[in-house]
Amino acid sequence: MDAPQASDSTYFDIRIDGTGSMIRYAMKGFWDAAIYARFHQAILREMSKFHSRGEPFDLLGDLTDFPPQLQTLNDARERLVEEAKAMGLRKCGVVTPNPIVKMQISRLSNQFYKFFGSEAEALAWIAED
């Protein structure tokens, strides 16, 4: 059986990984504030499921089809990181081949966020203690 998911099939997909405490998300296309607001609410809803149980969680982001965005959206995503950490985020591995996207969100990169060229590399980093 597939894990429950939240989706706006044109722009994002969010689902709980059935193997553990991980939320997988994929982002694609050019976004505006309304699309971001839908994503924000959908991912907060998924994170709150772990938070309500007092469980930490990891995020695995797929940005392979996500082009560079307006700075206002990157700023909003930075605020979302703070919300995620407050709700129990342990680590977020982000897969993106685009150096500009990586540069745009690199200020999120710290002990919680790292960028990778493949999902396998991201999963290996998340699995490290």
CATH topology: Transcription Regulator spoIIAA
- Give the spatial strand order of the biggest sheet: 1-2-3-4-5-6
End-to-end separation: 29 Å
Q: Overall 3D geometry? A: globular
The number of domains is 1
Radius of gyration, CA atoms, in whole angstroms: 14 Å
Main beta sheet strand tally, sense and closure: 6 strands, mixed
Provide a descriptive summary of the structure in words.
This protein is α/β, with parallel strands linked by helices. It has one domain (5-127): STAS domain (Transcription Regulator spoIIAA), CATH 3.30.750. 40% of the residues lie in helices and 29% in strands. The protein has helices at 33-52, 71-87, 99-104, 119-127, and strands spanning 5-8, 12-17, 22-28, 57-65, 89-95, 113-116. The chain has a 6-stranded mixed sheet with strand order 1-2-3-4-5-6, sandwiched between helices. Helix 1 (33-52) runs parallel beside helix 2 (71-87).
